[in-house]
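User: quick one, fold this
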Amino acid sequence: MRKSYLLHFLLIICLALGGTEKAVAVKANPNPVTITQPDGSTLTIRIHGDENLHYTTTIDGYLIRRDNDGYFKYVDMDADGSLRITSQTANNIDNRDNEEQQTVSRLVPAKKLQAQLTKSHSGIAKKPGKVLGRHIVSPSLPAGENAAESQYLVILVNFKDCTFHFAQNDFDLWLNEPGYDVDGGTGSVKDYYRDNSMGKFIPNFTVVGPYTLAHEQSYYAANADDGSGDINPRAMVIEACNLAKENNPQIDFSIFDNDKDGYMDNVNIIYAGYSEASTGDENDMWPHSWTLGEEAITIDGITINNYGCSAELVGASGIKMDGIGTFTHEFGHILGLKDLYDTDDYLNGYGLDPGAYTLYASGSYNNDSRTPPYLMAFERMQMGWCDPIELSEPEDVALQPIYTNEARYINAQPGREEGTGFEWFVLENRQREGWDTYLPAHGLLIYHYDYTQEMVEEYWSVNGPNNNSKHRCLYIKPADGIDDTNTRNGDTYPGRSGNTEFTDTSTPNSLNWAGEATNTPVTNIREEGGIIYFQVKGGVSAQSILKTLTPQNIRDTSVEAQAVVVNKTQSIREMGFCWATQEEPTIDSYRHTVEIADTISYIITGLEAGTQYNVRAYMILEDNSVIYGAAIPFSTECQVAVAPYIADFTSWTDGEPDCWKIVDNNKDGTTWIFDENADGMLYQFDYWNNADDWLISTRMLVPENGCLYFVRGVVETTTVENLDIYVSTHSREIEDFHLVKRYSFADNFGVQVPEEIDLKEYEGQEIYIAFVCHSEKLQGSLWLWQIYLASKLDTPRITKFESTDNGLYLEWTPIENAVRYYLEFSEVTDEVYTNAVFVPVSDLYVTDGNADISTGTIFFSENGVVETRDYPDGIIDCMFIVTTSGPTGTSLLTIEGTLDGTTWEQIGPSIRKSAYDNEGSEHLLSSYLQNKLYRKLRITCQHGGRNLKIKYFTLQYNDGYVCNMLSEGYVENSFVNIIETTPDEFLSGKKYAATVYSGDGVLFYDASETAYFSAPDNVSLHAVDKAFAVVENGNVCIRNLAQHTRVLCSTADGVLLYNNIVDGNECSFGVGGYQGVLIIRLIHNEEGRIIKLVVNP
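Assistant:
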């Protein structure tokens, strides 16, 4: 081994590169934060970045900043690429009015503004500081002896407009008291460093203040115009130091120069109020470590340059003293410790960090910042506190927890030239005890550590070891193979996945960055009593090894356990499985014996639904010794959901909603979460990766007339994202699902859209439903609400709608199992109702050739014909963009319309495309559609080598008449009397409409066919308005026609029954026995009218 040279190299590099050009800082709070606006309304925000660059967004990803009045408002991008605050106050999604929704629809999400957010910061430079001398951080001590305490100054400061809530003594205890446990804490800052250094480094903190600074908080803490950080933190530090000396002349500041180099090692400022990392408020200071640079001051003969600062309070509201996590993080920077989160604003992609396993990612927030995790072995090694032992020869290892200061490593570049660094795989035992109590999981943690000289110079030296997403210098090799923030509980071995090996061919593997084998297999990993056992290169002793496999076919009361015999040193007397709710079941727990074999399995029954168990295989050998496989946790499914069932996502366990399952199938760390503010499930898409994320239901029993209902919503329209609905009748494994429905995000945005999935074909079966986001890059966000399994009620049919002595009487067919009904009663106006949509995929049909269709999009790569559905009241406008691709040739696009479904007329000139055009050309057909009222459109492509893509295909069409709602509400019976408010109110010639829904107490189902009532009236504005239609003896009779009126009559699904120009004032025609709704279109000169007539049996 060359351990001594490697450690020497490490210490030299830490000393040389201890200071960086940018301030080092705590990572932004990874959780959404709810703040209060000046008007008392609440807003949930997300905070991104660190001290050097940070910004705030709404929960759905739109950039916001506070204005001069303290309101968070949206930020827009001008034509020149500059960012400016708009006048629109930001609200949560469910509180946005139409005006705000329109504003948001025009904004660019923050993820697409990375260039604008980062371009002004590449030149920011801050002078480097020093790190504490090694003889202070890691002195040479006799075995078992602790180091002398080193001394540090902590100054509490008020701002002129913000003062402390807690006393000096509170912070003295917080920093120095042994076993400090206020608010559930695990210890003081002094405890943390004593425990992690094994007594080699014990800081003692002298606390003074609080002193009030000369200016308001914003003078020191407001963000610079370019967003690069706080504008004047150095002034805060200088004032604080001078005030501390003025008020404490007896304190000799030279005692805080522990390494006697003429500089105070570090001064620590705790300022009143909150941290911007937790509030997003630009007037709050962001905790950080930096230097005074050229503004350094001298007191008592020593120079004060290095400083760190953090906030008094935790969170964004309330009065609660901050935990020690942030202070401990910032203080560690003066020792030379580096941030492990991505600190370069994602310029080289998003470098996923180790999360809660380290103080230098999100671990500083563990237990509300009161229990930061133990330092990792490599960090201890950098400080000179730990001496990991290389794994190079066959060995049987029993690895103690990290708090005992043990760690092992595999040298991934054993032939590397001395003095040029190293590349290792580090193995450490993490147990949920002490400072590690709040880790995601326990077991063997393995991480890839690249401290080669080239990586040190490029990344470690700038406090960015994980800035390059394609070459992270410190990342976990997750046991479950999923490198994902949301599945950190699967990172340890054997852990949840039961992974017992780490080799050159395993998943994950031990190949180095160059793809070369390390030839140091670690196998037979197991955990017993908090100790991790494994063998290296086959080990030195023959061991009987039994491997528990991941449980299969997990149901609510049963599971299939499996295991294989890896090796046996003597005969086996008994084999089986044991299981329990505790972590390490034994044969004294529940157990079942099976027939002895190399591969065994058993279906365990009688389990409790919705309960977490651990299962492992065992074998009893000839000498009566018991050999166990790894204990693998699993959770039984909840009891089968039966209708009516409403999904409740408010309770989560291990990163998943209770009874449901989340699969981050593309393993990008971005997946489904619960948005507490919107009270629904949220998928916030990732900027760099294609989405493939599954939200899988509990097992459901499909009832008679079974349907699944849910509400979806997006803010930003796009045509590259889809919500897919899948069904599985067997398991929750992805390969068992099949697609049943696809929704494009382009069809509705800025509104909540109810959806229905017909499950009748699965009646009586137990199934799983999966909601899956599939998309390309540059996505928005999707919400889901009110997922509801129900037995759909029948639709009412209105049988009477007539006048009475004092109003109107309405009656409909009673519906079995209906709890109540919902009635809508309105007045029909003369105003035509128009609707505009991106044409949904359900309204497009390929009638000839080939075309790829999706909402708002038609793509032709060969000849093809696409028709729209029938719009009975007429299409009045159409617009779209045509882009082209393909190598050569000329393709022709023709748009046609029809009035009767048979005769087609070309609309405007054909569109000829002969050149590549990725941007596309806009086509507006308004002038060609004026007064036409075509019922359908047909799009034909004559493909001549150039591919054509119609984007943002938008139609505006008439859809009956505007109805003014007069009354709506619940009705208990299947009839209602509508009482007039003035005499003969309903006999004035106006037309009224009524619609009824049946409900089961949770949901109201499909609307009845609208029924109409009108009394005669002599007033008519247009010739076509005088006409009326009735059914007599099975024939349709139309009277009061103007001469030369064209009459077209068709069924509701577009079948033409009559088409004629009437010379007289009336006409009569048969409908061939048709029953149902007829659509009668009258056209006279430039006037048009639609009459809907019902032919009853």
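User: anything notable?
Assistant: The chain has a mean pLDDT of 86.
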